[in-house]
Task: structure prediction
Amino acid sequence: MDYIVADVTDSFRMQRLFDHYHPDVVFHASAYKHVPLMEEYPYEAVKCNVGGLKVMADLAVRYEVEKFVMVSTDKAVNPTNVMGASKRICEIYVQALSQRPGIKTKFITTRFGNVLGSNGSVIPLFKKQIADGGPVQVTHRDITRFFMTIPEACQLVLEAGSMGNGGEIFLFDMGKPIKIYDLAEKMIQLSGFVPHKDIAIVEIGLRPGEKLYEELLASAEDTLPTHHKKILIGKVRKYDFDVQQQKISDLLAHLTKDSDEALVSRMKYIVPEFSSKNSRFEKLDKKEARQVAILNFRDMSGHRN
Result:
């Protein structure tokens, strides 16, 4: 097995790797996933998450890769933050690509929630806070999240990639959502302490872009079962590739020109259901701001929704 150090947004470097290895299957999991950081730095979210995905997906088509599996997130459903919206844009792009006539690459999307023990996961954070004597910090008493283990996530991604015929969004059965406050209490108990007595739990408030409840499916989508009891297929809408290609190319072309607000406005134009929460970008969701942005972007790019 070869390990290569490279940047997925570097099209020259990625092309050299495709030239050398000619992969049959690509699993694309590269992304910035930290919600508050991406809310602060939308340039980085778009550059890495959207730009990197587009480079890799376009090369997959060019080199006639058999399958391209993109790892997405439940935060892409009705996104309330820049990170989730960036991943939704990635979903839209690969779905639009898969609907192009003559494409040999089968594009597959997998969508699931939080992975226990991964970088930025709440479990190692809680462990450290407990080891330090507390307090354990939760953003909101009622906040819930879906979780699965690293081995389970990897296995389901591989199985979904194997069964995919192109264009699907595979949803993983994450079970019931877990209340983070209850998780904090349980971890304190398992560490040999009494919650609220030995170790305090404090609410620090929702972070920028954060929402109380995550979803795995948008309201416009339905699901179909597969032979695997933990994998469902989400029905997805049809996309005009030329329109989506133009919108996303415009977004990337303006990375170094736009302010953060203008950049996020472009994201909202591509993903109309993107509504910011607890964020400096909430002002962009006002009806007047949305209408002005849509008219401006249509005029500049010469296309319509």
About this structure: The longest strand covers residues 67-73.
